[in-house]
Design goal:
Helices cover about 45% and strands about 20% of the residues. By secondary structure, it is of the alpha/beta class.
């Protein structure tokens, strides 16, 4: 299944109605369990820098929701937010300009070709690496871009059911994925040779979180891929199912998952 066409529907909607973008960000933060985990780790890492102004690289910013969150909650900071999709970056530029958010700048960049040197205190890379074939080159570029003592947060599907793949014969639920996911060992084997050290690793979307993802994300996406007419009934669907989805996500968020279909990995330079 292709995920980008569904994402583009929402991108085009908030482009036409920019006043809905903040509401859209809040919905993403509420509906996607990965955002719960990412925002928690971001706030924890911010405390490690004290009152120091930090430079942040949002590597694969998508709709710009994490850049928006960090611009509000990670102060004092400067954020450089990039993506390969020019139209999405231009939309974000326009919105952040309207909102007069001055500590975020945007660029169109391919993470396999960037050449930043000792520039950032923190790199955030959410659900990006599973889309990139040459991940080692990206990790090497991230190492060069970080200042000594800086942190890299990677959030991605794991090999334990990530991309909804549970055995070797199954294909990824998301057609754009270059790999089904990572293990802790895989990330360490690819990051450590460049000089990274493992700071923290946590599995997300454990037993309960996986059920929440199916109910709140997978099934609606399948319906919309089947027919755009299902967009009309999605509000009713979420009205009926979201209380259950929220409870399942809350349990997962407060659990110590031994394994999970997602992984939140933090490395330090």
């Amino acid at each position: 299944m292709k995920y980008d066409p569904v994402k583009n529907i929402f991108a085009n909607t908030i482009k036409k109605f920019p006043f809905l973008r903040v509401t859209f960000y809040k919905i993403l933060d509420l509906m996607f369990l990965r955002s719960w985990y990412v925002r928690r780790e971001l706030k924890k890492l911010r405390k490690k820098f004290g009152n120091k102004k930090i430079n942040i690289y949002d590597a694969g910013s998508g709709y710009g929701q994490y850049s928006y969150f960090m611009s509000q909650k990670m102060q004092p900071c400067e954020i450089y937010s990039v993506d390969v999709k020019e139209d999405w970056i231009n939309d974000c530029k326009d919105f952040f300009k309207i909102k007069k958010i001055e500590n975020v700048t945007f660029g169109i960049e391919d993470l396999t070709t960037i050449n930043h040197r000792d520039r950032f205190d923190l790199i955030l890379c959410v659900d990006v690496m599973e889309h990139i074939e040459d991940d080692r080159k990206v990790f090497e570029n991230f190492y060069g871009a970080l200042k000594k003592g800086g942190y890299l947060i990677i959030n991605t599907p794991s090999v334990y059911g990530g991309s909804d793949v549970h055995d070797e014969e199954e294909e990824s639920f998301i057609g754009e994925h270059a790999r089904v996911g990572y293990s802790v060992e895989d990330l360490e084997n690819k990051l450590h040779p460049f000089g990274f050290q493992t700071f923290q690793t946590r599995f997300t979307y454990g037993f309960w979180g996986d059920k929440a993802w199916r109910l709140g994300i997978k099934y609606p996406i399948l319906m919309v891929n089947l027919s755009k007419l299902f967009l009309i009934i999605l509000p009713l669907y979420y009205l009926l199912t979201f209380p259950f989805t929220f409870i399942l996500m809350w349990i997962d968020y407060h659990s110590n998952n031994k394994i999970g279909s997602g992984i939140n990995f933090i490395a330090k330079k």
